[in-house]
Amino acid sequence: MLIPFSVKNCFQLLCNHKVPAAGFKNTAKNGLILQSISNDIYQNLAVEDWIHDHINLDGKPILFFWRNSPSVVIGRHQNPWQECNLNQMREEGIKLARRKSGGGTVYHDMGNINLTFFTTKNKYDRMKNLKLIVQALNSVQPQLDVQATKRFDLILDGQYKISGTASKIGRTAAYHHCTLLCSTDGASLTSFLKSPYQGIKSNATASIPAVVKNLLEKDPTLTCEVLMNAVAESYATYHQIDSHINLINPTDETLFPGIKSKAKELQTWEWIYGKTPKFSVNTSFNVLYEQSCVEIKVFIDIKNGRIEMCNIEAPDHWLPLEVCDILCSGFIGSKFCPIETTLMTNMLLKTYPEDYELHSKWNILCEKMKGIM
Ligand SMILES: Nc1ncnc2c1ncn2[C@@H]1O[C@H](COP(=O)(O)OC(=O)CCCC[C@@H]2CCSS2)[C@@H](O)[C@H]1O
């Protein structure tokens, strides 16, 4: 059952900053089950962040259910160019988010359930949480063969991944969050998580690709709603709490003071791209110009998402060295980003008015450069 009202009281009593340390009656008793009414990845990640930072979880763990509109979610220490098809995502309006937890890249849509288990650091136990999910799945479909692996994936029929795990451990609080594939679009998952970018060298965490499957494909009765209710039941039974799923609104500043600024920060270029560990790109492309094909080589170092070093090698007869150097200097310090490249190159071109051949070659080159960003 879903009740949006009572959560406010439970929640405010759980907040460290709202209630004196002693003497309050905790109406949340031994725990709380929440579900977001938002499908926005940034707002939902902000809820996780907010609960982690503000709630006293001692003796009062929280289970949080949330789903998102199509998004790709990378781990804290990952490189988005290495992990996904950014050009295709931009074209199709797929959001990219960087989460605070480590681990690999996953695809979310409304057919994917996210579950966050908040506890104190001492009570943090990923295997226990996964076993609870397995038990919930078996309670609705006893024939399902689902197992937790050593790397905290859940696998169906000994081979198909249905859940991936990541976690964040703070000073006193911790959370373990995982996905559960119910009816996600498999073609989108595969295509957005395939990087077309060549020649990237980096020490960023690499994802571990797996063959995935939806639970709904195995059993058409296993809808997201059925799955969430089943996990809520198992969680409530285990913690001896009410199995009500309390709806929360991640934009409610009275419930979560300061949450909007958290969501905003999670959407910034500086967080999503700028936090990418230092990397380099060593690649080349062929350009066709007046029936001849020329090879252009590029070497770029990127730090905090910005170009730190750039070297473009084109045949001198096609683009004079001096022009190449001006272009490279323009790239230094600019974001490794197609929009910024357009702005920067348009500005630079103004220094060569009326040289139409140069403009044309320069534009061809810049389009190719934008293609690797
Ligand atoms: N939604 C989803 N669920 C399960 N597996 C997925 C999903 N999307 C992609 N994949 C597969 O997992 C690998 C990456 O596996 P890898 O093990 O590298 O990474 C993970 O599993 C991370 C899980 C993060 C869970 C968080 C919970 C809330 S916000 S995101 C990818 O290449 C695909 O093959």
Automatic annotation (TrEMBL):
Record InterPro entries: aa-tRNA-synth_II/BPL/LPL, BPL_LPL_catalytic, LipoylTrfase_LipoateP_Ligase
GO biological-process terms attached to the record: protein lipoylation
Enzyme Commission number: 2.3.1.200
Chief localisation class: mitochondrion
Claim: Magnesium is one of the keywords in the record: no
Catalytic activity of the protein: (R)-lipoyl-5'-AMP + L-lysyl-[lipoyl-carrier protein] = N(6)-[(R)-lipoyl]-L-lysyl-[lipoyl-carrier protein] + AMP + 2 H(+); N(6)-[(R)-lipoyl]-L-lysyl-[glycine-cleavage complex H protein] + L-lysyl-[lipoyl-carrier protein] = L-lysyl-[glycine-cleavage complex H protein] + N(6)-[(R)-lipoyl]-L-lysyl-[lipoyl-carrier protein]
EC top class, as a word: transferase
Domain BPL/LPL catalytic, chain residue ranges per copy: 57-243
GO molecular function: lipoyltransferase activity; N-acyltransferase activity
Coiled coil regions in record: none
A Pfam cross-reference name: LplA-B_cat
CDD domains the record matches: LplA
Key words, A-Z: Acyltransferase, Mitochondrion, Transferase, Transit peptide
Pathway the protein acts in: Protein modification; protein lipoylation via exogenous pathway; protein N(6)-(lipoyl)lysine from lipoate: step 2/2
Protein's cellular compartments: Mitochondrion
Function according to Swiss-Prot or TrEMBL: Lipoyl amidotransferase that catalyzes the transfer of lipoyl moieties from lipoyl-protein H of the glycine cleavage system (lipoyl-GCSH) to E2 subunits of the pyruvate dehydrogenase complex (PDCE2). Unable to catalyze the transfer of octanoyl from octanoyl-GCSH to PDCE2. In vitro, it is also able to catalyze the transfer of the lipoyl group from lipoyl-AMP to the specific lysine residue of lipoyl domains of lipoate-dependent enzymes but this reaction may not be physiologically relevant.
Name of the protein in question: Lipoyl amidotransferase LIPT1, mitochondrial
Source organism of this protein record: Dipodomys ordii
Gene for this chain: Lipt1
